Amino acid sequence: MRRLYKRMKEARTWKGRLPLDVKKKLYVNRDEGRTCKVLEIDDYDFEVIDDVTYESFVVDLDKRTCGCGAYQISGIPCKHAMPCIVMKCECAANYVDPRLTVRAYIITYSEFIKPRPNQAIWPSVQGPEINPPEMLVQVSKLKKHARKKEPNELLRKKKNKQIFKCTNCSGIGHNKRSSKNPTKSSSHVYSLFYIMLT
Question: What are phi and psi for residue 59, nearest 5 degrees?
Answer without folding.
Answer: -115, 130
